[in-house]
Amino acid sequence: MFPLAVFGFIHGCHEWIEMFFISGWFDFHSARVWNWLDLGLLVVSFISLFIFGIWIISLQMALSSTQRARMSIVVICYMLFVLMIGAWASSGSNDRFLFCDALVRYSLAVPGAAIAGIALQRLSGRLEHRILKGLRPALQIAGWGFIIYALTQLFVSKLAFFPADRLNTSSFLEMFGFPIQAMRLAMAVIITVSLIWAAQLVDKERQRQFLAAQESRIETLNCLERELRTRESMRQDLLRHIVVAQEDERARISRELHDESAQILTAFSFHLAAIRNATPAKASILPQIEQLQLLCRQLSTGIYRLVRDLRPAQLDDLGLTPALQYQCDEVFNRSGLKVHLEVVGERRRLDKLVETVLYRVAQEALTNVARHAEVNEAYLKVTFQPNQVSLKVVDSGKGFHQEDFSPGRRTWGLEGMRERAESVDGSFLLHSTSGIGTEVEIIVPVANETRPLKK
User: Fold this and answer.
1) How confident is the model at residue 383 (pLDDT cuts 50, 70, 90)?
2) With the C-alpha atoms ordered 170, 174, 176, 182, is the resulting torsion angle positive or negative?
3) How far apart are CA 340 and CA 361, in angstroms?
4) DSSP assignment, residue 404?
5) Residue ranges of domains in the chain, CATH in brackets
6) What is the pLDDT confidence band of residue 181, given thresholds at 50, 70 and 90?
7) How far apart are CA 75 and CA 102, in angstroms?
8) What is the DSSP string of 134-180?
9) Concatenated DSSP letters for 198-232?
10) For residue 69, is pLDDT > 80?
11) What is the distance between the alpha carbons of residues 99 and 101, in angstroms, rounded to a whole number?
């Protein structure tokens, strides 16, 4: 549409200049200069109209932009050649301006407008079986308007050569009783209204396609969101299943160690005691028997500690808070780390899986503090609220830079705590600053239907 816009703007300027000359509103001191300027505007406007028609046809022929540019250059060269011929032919004419004006209309305006009209007619015919059916009448009207406009350009000022001596503005006025300019104006109005109509239809269709694309995009995003929610739900179910299976396996191993290995060690210890009692006090084998008894007691203590670590009986029998208190005591006995336990809110029993997750997160966090924080104290805080339970482990140790733990450098302890929290729809929060300390917190939503502990 750009060449057509250029044609309309420049041709409008040409018409205004002609109106000023005809009406005598301005007294131009250099009328000859303004005449040639008016002719130059006419030439440029008709070249733009010619290029518009060529581009419409080239689009229908599926030509590339380079090929369309070459065609435009050929058209411009043709027009310049015509102008040169006209200037040479009019060198001996008495009125060179009128001669050149007629030549421009014959060689540029008539073929340019005709090509534009034919191109729009062909384009309307190709839209018969397409979505934009409303475009067909608009383009047909505009096409016929251009064709009639091309015919009006045959009527030029009266000159002494064919066909200007027969088809001219004077003969048209005698035949129809109104000037040819009125006919051109009517065609210009019809063409403008038709093209505006067509542009509105195209804009509506473009908006419809845009809305359809947006709806399709939104639907695709909704499908992706539903799929992500489904995958997230499946992942949480899988994590929950893994945690439950892991705890069941821990409980099974704990039972087997307690029921089999511990009993065998107890029987072995009894047999050693019987042998020791039956051995004389001064026998040389007595120290070895006592050493075996000591090793048996150490092994039994180790198995007992392993059984408690695998599945503490306090967690199943007494609940979360006593199990955490036991864990704090165990950490102090093993590593010397003093853990201050604070319980806020009404203590109550929670879901078995939730209690297990909170206990394991506290166990892992306190183990990390004992191993890496290089401090002697830590704080463990449990907060019971109506709809959630939070557990927080805080130390003032050396800490670390959280940026150091990029996706390529995962720490399995932290990832394990995070996954345990996600398995019960909880949130895992980690804040650490080098030289200041670390804070680990897990928040788990719970239903307000759990029973309080009996005092």
Assistant:
1) very high
2) positive
3) 16
4) G
5) 2-177 (no CATH), 313-455 (3.30.565.10)
6) confident
7) 19
8) THHHHHHHHHHHHHHHHHHTT-BS--SSTTTTTSBHHHHHHHHSS-H
9) HHHHHHHHHHHHHHHHHHHHHHHHHHHHHHHHHHH
10) no
11) 5
CA dist 44 and 9 (Å) reads: 11
| H-type alpha helices, 284-396 | 286-310, 313-317, 320-335, 352-368
Whose tokens are 């080239």? That residue is 58
CA distance 90 to 94: 8
Q: Can you spell out the DSSP letters for 243-280?
A: HHHHHHHHHHHHHHIIIIIHHHHHHHHHHHHHHHHHS-
pLDDT band at 29 (very low <50, low <70, confident <90, very high): very low
The percent of the chain in helix, strand and coil, each rounded to the nearest 5, is 70, 10, 20
What's the average model confidence in pLDDT over 322-342? Answer: 89
Lookup result for tokens 């030509």: 63
Contact call for residues 16 and 38 (beta carbons, < 8 A) = no
pLDDT of 102-148, one tens digit each?
888 888 888 888 888 888 888 877 765 555 667 888 888 988 998 99
Name the residue type at position 378.
Answer: A
Q: What is the pLDDT of residues 256-292, one digit of tens each?
A: 777 777 778 888 888 888 888 887 776 778 888 888 8
- Which tokens hold the place of 218? 């939104």
Please tell me which residue, 304 or 346, carries the higher pLDDT value.
346
**CA dihedral sign, ordered 122, 127, 128, 134:** negative
Average pLDDT, integer, range 143-156: 89
With a threshold of 0.85, does the pTM exceed it? Answer: no
Q: Which has more confidence, 133 or 12?
A: 12
Give the position of tokens 């009406």. 23
Contact 148, 106 (CB under 8 A): no
What are the angstrom distances between the C-alpha of 294 and each of 257, 284, 298, 428?
20, 17, 6, 44
State residue 117 phi and psi, 5-degree precision: -65, -45
Residue 376 DSSP label: S
